[in-house]
Design goal:
By secondary structure, the chain is α/β, with parallel strands linked by helices. Helices cover 46% and strands 12% of the residues. α9 packs antiparallel against α10 and α10 (234-252) packs antiparallel against α12 (285-302).
């Protein structure tokens, strides 16, 4: 259990990027691009990478592609960053198979989202997560994002799951600050802000760090926010968080999925990304121009390029 002055350990690092999965122009998996992008992100401030999350287009990549991606990125970054593999599906058996494959490919941990669409009750949800945690030897980060899955991992369920030795963290996209603090006060789970606008707010109440989509294009930004807070300069931490908001809004709240906006900006910045896979569609030129303007505004305010 945490104490008033004790932040839970960060088992997967503090500043994690929900990395896009680069594709070639023909739509094939671009492993060389993935290596180069991973190296870029780690060298500029990310100490963890989440692979094959929603931002990584997990619904449209094959099991073999997911395993190959983990192996390629591990080759690129070595032990300089933790690799968390997204393995969550709507099928418990399939999720367990992906967990084993991720471990064999070299992942350090698993990101497991609540089963979507079927909306199991909380006892079935708890059993699902326990089965996945038992399937491999890797630590698990639960992913609570009811806006996408249609079901909440209720705080009381999370508290019970915290007793499992391999369930160690939560990616929090539930927009429930009270529920988050309830779990933090009763467990030693490491919470990671999964919504970029909430990074500082959750960190201030005891989160371990963040899993950021925006970090694809500003990999060092939220590390600077957390570093400033840890140094006691809360004013600067707040300033840096506020500076990020126009870009966060453009990428995450302007009507396009974060995968689409991140790939549009990465392409504009000359970094590996490639197209998105259907049913997603690329950002049009007007949307890309707006994204680039928000990025350049942040770069100017920071006095340097963020990429």
């Amino acid at each position: 259990m945490t104490t008033d002055d004790d932040r839970p350990a960060a088992p997967f690092g503090r500043t994690l990027c929900a990395m896009v999965t680069p594709f070639t122009e023909s739509g094939a998996l671009d492993l060389d691009g993935a290596r180069r992008l991973a190296e870029h992100l780690v060298s500029r401030g990310c100490d963890g990478l989440v692979l094959s999350g929603t931002t990584g287009e997990s619904p449209t990549t094959t099991d073999a592609e997911k395993a190959a991606l983990v192996a390629a990125v591990r080759e690129a970054v070595g032990d300089r960053a933790a690799l968390v593999a997204g393995v969550g599906t709507a099928d418990t058996r399939h999720t367990a198979e992906l967990a084993v494959a991720a471990e064999q490919a070299g992942a350090d941990g698993l990101l497991v989202v609540a089963p979507y669409y079927s909306r199991p009750p909380q006892d079935a949800l708890e059993a699902h997560f326990r089965e996945i945690a038992d399937a491999s030897g890797l630590p698990v980060m639960l992913y609570d994002i009811p806006g996408r899955t249609g079901i909440r991992i209720e705080p009381d369920t999370v508290v019970r799951l915290a007793a499992h030795p391999r369930i160690v963290a939560v990616k929090d996209c539930a927009y429930d600050l009270l529920g988050t603090q309830k779990v933090l006060s009763r467990t030693g789970l490491a919470y990671y802000a999964g919504c970029d606008e909430q990074v500082l707010a959750l960190y201030a109440v005891g989160a371990a760090g963040c899993v950021s989509t925006v970090a694809n294009v500003v990999p060092g930004l939220f590390r600077s926010v957390l570093d400033a807070f840890d140094a006691g300069d809360t004013g600067r931490a707040a300033l840096l968080q506020r500076r990020a908001i126009p870009l966060v809004e453009s990428m995450m709240a302007a009507g396009l999925p974060g995968t689409v906006t991140a790939k549009a900006l990465l392409g504009a910045l000359g970094l590996p990304a490639g197209p998105v896979r259907a049913p997603l569609r690329p950002a049009d030129p007007a949307a890309t121009a707006a994204l680039l303007a928000a990025y350049e505004e942040l770069a100017a305010a920071s006095g340097q390029s963020q990429a």
